[in-house]
Write a structure and sequence with these properties.
By secondary structure, the chain is α+β, with helices and mostly antiparallel strands. About 40% of the residues lie in helices and about 10% in strands. The protein is built from four helices and two strands; from the N terminus they run αββααα.
Length: about 60
């Protein structure tokens, strides 16, 4: 997802945020910051869209062990 929207090409994702020992998706929390938008007015709407696109709350779908 970040590769499509902020040009992230390597790991770890530059939108990966750590707070209180937890890793969180910055594209969900502060999308305007990572997309270089002029302000954070669209953050709530964009964050919901990114969360939906990433499947937040639907469990992990990774094929990795």
């Amino acid at each position: 997802m970040a590769r499509e929207h902020i040009g992230a090409m390597e790991a770890p994702c530059p939108a990966l945020e750590c707070e209180d020992g937890r890793f969180l998706c910055g594209l969900i929390r502060r999308p305007g910051h990572y997309m270089a938008l002029p302000n954070d007015a669209a953050d709530p709407m964009l964050g919901r869209l990114f969360a939906q696109a990433l499947g937040v709350g639907r469990g992990c779908d990774s094929s990795d062990p």
